[in-house]
Amino acid sequence: MARYARVKGSIALITLTNPPVNALSAAVRRGIMESVSRALKDEQVKAVVFCGENEKFCGGADIKEFSGSMSGPPLVPLIHSIEAGEKPMVAAIEGVALGGGLELALGCHYRVANTKACLGLPEVTLGLLPAAGGTQRLPRLIGIPAALELITTGRHVSAQEALQLGIVDQVAQGSAVQAAMELALSVIGQPLNPRRLSLRAPVWAPDVDGVCDAALAQVKQRSRGAMAPVACVQAVRAAAMLPYSKGMERERQLMDTLFRSGQAQAMQYAFFAQRNAGKWSLPNGSQWNNTRARDVQRAGVIGLGTMGRGIAVSLVKAGISVVAIETDAKQLESGKKAVTAMLQRDAQRRGVSPPLHLLTFTLSFHQLRDVDLVIEAVFEDMNLKKRVFSDLCKVLRANSLICTNTSGLNVDELAAVTDRQPLVVGMHFFAPAHVMKLLEVVYGARSSPEAVATAMALGKRIEKVCVAVGNCSGFVGNRMLKLYLDQSVYMLEEGATPEQVDQALEEFGFAMGIFKVSDLSGLDVGWRVRKASGLIGPDVDPVKPSRWRLGRRYCPLPDMLCQQGRFGQKTGRGWYLYDSPGSKEAKSDPEIQTFLEDYRRKYGIIPRRITSQEVIERCAFALANEGFRILEDRIAASPEDIDVIYLFGYGWPRHRGGPMFYASQVGLSVVLEKLEHYHRIHPDVPSLEPSRLLRRLVAEGSPPIQQWKSHIKNLRSHL
Ligand SMILES: C/C=C(\C)C(=O)SCCNC(=O)CCNC(=O)[C@H](O)C(C)(C)COP(=O)(O)OP(=O)(O)OC[C@H]1O[C@@H](n2cnc3c(N)ncnc32)[C@H](O)[C@@H]1OP(=O)(O)O
């Protein structure tokens, strides 16, 4: 899987051939080894150029191989043999040079990239470190601070930035392969030792220790328990302190630990889960590769609140014309200002001009007559949305799609008021919509495969991670979130504080605990939903609200907070205290402690100590248990889809894979046992009762997560 050719008389051109990204599989490594040996032996060959098939240099090691037993020539000695070769070796980088691909290029004596190439060492995002010499060669090439930044973040850099950093020697406007061949011919006969990065001395710099310490503190703070970024800093520190061979030894030791870790498994699982989510399928058999998406050139956005603004920005940035509608002139003006400012800021950052010409702001629905698709983002109110949907049908072309950004209302009920049920789907964005990566595409009972394909393709075009889900209250993400929130507030009743719960979740890896997140989102949002769903009504005792509603345990604490006007950050008070409305730093509020104590006293609850372990078990296992029910109900097509939703929409730590992967990693029988235990203690919380699918999987020997899909099919056929 490496092609060998002699070109221009004296150049051996070695082409990596393993589409789509020319990953360094065992066969590719073998091919490179044989080709290098042939080039070194061939007396006609005076220089060697490496490139990749289909204008993609190399996407790195073949990640699929990591889960099996590795075979074939190892990468480290292979790259060493390239570097040690007595003929100039030049990497011609087109498309991507990532991970092992860049490490291969660093083993070459020269590197040429074309303008569109991107380079990086993203191993840290897979729970690993660049262990084919990357942590030792890159610092020797570009210095410790720049290498630390690239290796600990896994950030991709453009060819231009790579040139500025000194990673590549040349950027070619046209073909990198042509430019590399010219460079190779021009350097024949020049000494190679100065070009061999491994021969360079350790990279000493003033206060190297201080720089590494600062990087360590930064990654520990940023990555919340992830091991790989810490190991990356340790390996780069070795490049600063030790000769190359010792540094390589350190790199290998650190990699050995990471490679076997559950964190690496979780992150590699997340990599493939994200890509598999794009391969959607519907219960009727329609799927991503048998359904055509429609082209969307013009879209409408109804409502310019926070969500509508973010959606409009995302569409325009992808080159789609947008007609943005509001019902009130003042709101239209403030929406216009906000959208324009967001686009201007973004354009300024990227050094381009803002695509404002793609935007039309109007109060008139008639301007929507020739759009291909509309995304409704009005207030979360079924009647209001129904009115908007029927008004849309009066002006839209008969074949225009109508999408709703509802976060959990019934898509079928909305579709029913239209004249085009097959053309109605949900597009559930997450706030802020121009930043958050997740998009749940919700298909209703009558949504056509073409409508789903169009929404999925549009989501991909605006750079979202899209997951197709079925229609139920809250869809996947918010349906699960409800149970996680329930557990959190029950624990406050039982004796915990918001700080304790949040600390346990943050130590687990969440960027923010659930109470901080609730304050950020606004506590009034859930309050409104609970009122609309009949959980709060005039029959509720205002002095001692019932803890039992609709036949199950209910915690009135969040409602009581809202009654006090504590809506979270926006009012300066929620579960925490803020310096002023809108400020972000959450501080403990003694009033909340007193409020919780009074509450427990009023209801005769004797507080008990709740450990971090209990917090994690009750939150994570409640999430996973609902995830199993969602799989039984066919609302999500696979556990991977659920995990992608939690990773990209709800801040689940990537090094824990997602709630379903976490359950599989902890062990399904352990999860079952714990749920049974908690359900025994809390029989008034039906959601803690282990799901049928979980029981079934345990009974069938807890198969690996990749096999759950077939067990789910069997479970259904037994129902
Ligand atoms: C030690 C460790 C070492 C030495 C390493 O090198 S670890 C690997 C480091 N490399 C990476 O992390 C790069 C991973 N890949 C990507 O970031 C992207 O795939 C890409 C930027 C290279 C291309 O992006 P895009 O064009 O959007 O395509 P997809 O992401 O959808 O990928 C297409 C298919 O290729 C599969 N793929 C990609 N990279 C690898 C890889 N390194 N090993 C195995 N397979 C890879 C990916 O899963 C897609 O497969 P399908 O879904 O189409 O089946």
TrEMBL record:
Residues 299-471 form the 3-hydroxyacyl-CoA dehydrogenase NAD binding domain. Pfam families: 3HCDH, 3HCDH_N, ECH_1. GO terms for molecular function: (3S)-3-hydroxyacyl-CoA dehydrogenase (NAD+) activity; delta(3)-delta(2)-enoyl-CoA isomerase activity; enoyl-CoA hydratase activity; NAD+ binding. Pathway: Lipid metabolism; fatty acid beta-oxidation. Its EC number is 1.1.1.35, 4.2.1.17, 5.3.3.8. Residues 474-578, 615-702 form the 3-hydroxyacyl-CoA dehydrogenase C-terminal domain. Keywords: Fatty acid metabolism, Isomerase, Lipid metabolism, Lyase, Multifunctional enzyme, NAD, Oxidoreductase, Peroxisome. GO terms for cellular component: peroxisome. It is found in: Peroxisome. Signal peptide: none annotated. It catalyses: (3E,5Z)-tetradecadienoyl-CoA = (2E,5Z)-tetradecadienoyl-CoA; (2E)-hexadecenedioyl-CoA + H2O = (3S)-hydroxyhexadecanedioyl-CoA; (3S)-hydroxyhexanoyl-CoA = (2E)-hexenoyl-CoA + H2O; (3S)-hydroxyhexadecanoyl-CoA + NAD(+) = 3-oxohexadecanoyl-CoA + NADH + H(+). GO terms for biological process: fatty acid beta-oxidation. InterPro entries: 3-OHacyl-CoA_DH_NAD-bd, 3HC_DH_C, 6-PGluconate_DH-like_C_sf, ClpP/crotonase-like_dom_sf, Enoyl-CoA_hyd/isom_CS, Enoyl-CoA_hydra/iso, NAD(P)-bd_dom_sf. Monomer. In the N-terminal section; belongs to the enoyl-CoA hydratase/isomerase family. In the C-terminal section; belongs to the 3-hydroxyacyl-CoA dehydrogenase family. This is Peroxisomal bifunctional enzyme. It comes from Pangasianodon hypophthalmus (Striped catfish).
